[in-house]
Amino acid sequence: MEIVINIDDPTPVFTQLMEQIKTAVANNHLPEGTPLPSIRQLANDLEVNSKTVAKAYKLLERDNIIQSRGYRGSFVHPDAKSHCHIDLSQWTTEMLTDCIATLRAKGVTDSEIRVAFGSLMNSKF
Amino acid sequence: MEIVINIDDPTPVFTQLMEQIKTAVANNHLPEGTPLPSIRQLANDLEVNSKTVAKAYKLLERDNIIQSRGYRGSFVHPDAKSHCHIDLSQWTTEMLTDCIATLRAKGVTDSEIRVAFGSLMNSKF
DNA sequence: ATATGTACCATTACTACAGATGGTACATAT
DNA sequence: ATATGTACCATCTGTAGTAATGGTACATAT
């Protein structure tokens, strides 16, 4: 299992991490249950901040790609393969695309959409 | 017809303009067909930039509250009253609220929503 | 000439957020 | 002791958008 971080790549580090781990799971390079390097260990190896790795791990856990077991470490999720093709971000894009397209069709300005969106995201609900 | 701009109000000037004109139409202070002060004139009176007034007028025209007739000036839209209760911004808020709520319910991070939203708004489609 | 709406060009100040970094601390286990 | 994930605190840089300002110009009319 090799993870390579490309700093010249505009893609955020935590995203590169997620993608590579996800790909490794899909390609059977990381079978279900396989222990992953610890957050601190991986951060040290890749020379990135541990919070950055923690962020990637946290999102991967939310997507059911990996499992965190506290002091026991992190492992590939038992059903990782079936979940790693469920692209939540793609679904998010589709949802928003429809919504924005509808608004634009009604003549709502992009600026107005942005402002309304910003207000909604600020009011935590 | 009096329009007052409050600089201390965090509400943008062009928004204050829109609201007051809209309210005046709803309250019959500005009957359909009434000529509005010209963009430059109003900008001069209120001591704001003409582009700011133009922006308000443009949005009001999109909402069918007023009509611009080029060199002839701007007038209250013939069907202004029936349109001035159709709150496009409110409708926009409702659309986005639903969309965001759905995404959040699925566990999508606010940060992810923002990033996806930003990408979509940049790619002009 | 003068005035209308409109369409470009541009700049400035302000705000907000992402991404990443660093430090500290906790409970839990070996 | 050492290591695990995790949760706070914080700072910094870069980017991006809004709001508003200003200037110039155009076709169209009185």
From TrEMBL, chains A, B:
SMART domains: HTH_GNTR (SM00345). The lineage of its organism: Bacteria, Pseudomonadati, Pseudomonadota, Gammaproteobacteria, Alteromonadales. This is GntR family transcriptional regulator. Gene3D superfamilies: Winged helix-like DNA-binding domain superfamily/Winged helix DNA-binding domain (1.10.10.10). PROSITE patterns: HTH_GNTR (PS50949). Pfam families: GntR. Keywords: DNA-binding, Transcription, Transcription regulation. One of its GO terms (molecular function) is DNA binding. SUPFAM superfamilies: Winged helix' DNA-binding domain. Residues 11-79 form the HTH gntR-type domain.
